[in-house]
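Posted in: Structural Biology > Protein-Ligand Complexes

Title: Requesting predicted complex, manganese (II) ion in pocket

I'd be grateful if someone could produce the 3D structure tokens for the following input. Sequence and ligand are given below.
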Amino acid sequence: MKQYVIVGHENPDLDSVISGYLLEQLLKRKGYSVQFIIPDKEIDTDTKTLCQKYGIDVTLHQKDWVIDADYILVDHHERKVPGNIVAIIDHHPTSKIIDCPYLINKHICSTAMLIYELFSDFFLEEEKKLVVLANLVDTVAFHLPDKYREVDIQLTKELCQQLNLDYQLLEQDGMMVTSLKDLSKTYCNGLKRYQFGNYIVMSSYIQVEKVTKEQKDSLISFCTKRLIEEKLDLYVFLIMTFLDNKTMVYYITKDDIKVEPYSYFVSRGSVIMPKVETYFLQKK
Ligand SMILES: [Mn+2]
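-- Reply #1 --
Done. Output follows.
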């Protein structure tokens, strides 16, 4: 029997974990031999804790790559795997041409929601609750207007009602405020690596009540250090502040830092990185 392996993106966030988990449950119920793996040695503490709170032990999925398996990517389309990629289920827009037998890349609030919409009859109540949580976390409780469809708010609230869940409690968890305790770790929140042609880019972000100038300077210096250590072409750092509902995007290269302010929470995956991708793919 064919062995399928589901894998999310590097440094998985909550949606990556939940969509992988849900797809694993679904395919098992349909009789497939499948496992959801997290090959990353380290998983972000906030993500780990929140998953635990909602009944998913991420450590159970921390397994090594399976050589020559058929891979299904969820919540991204980039990872190199030691086998064939047979399916991709994602919601991160890209201008890359992707050659894959089964590809869905849709504008929707979370990959968990995308899987749920495709197969809503197959999920248990506690799994539907995970969908609600993924929707909230991936959109910072619907503070990221570029990242969801208008209808997603309604659908998420309806799902909550249907399951008798307290929307406000889940909303609090969905905000996932980044801890500023140890800035040398804080700056890595949501760290992702991208390859655009020959260019290597890394990016991370924080979502906090507010930051002081000292904290901001320190975070940017950690990003710059990483840029140099990893010989990156660009480091993109986003600071989202709940108090004034703003985003500052820092484009850090070894020569300078460009700042782009937004008067709302801008989505890294849906807005910023596609722009960066276009820039590098056009550059010779
Ligand atoms: Mn996602």
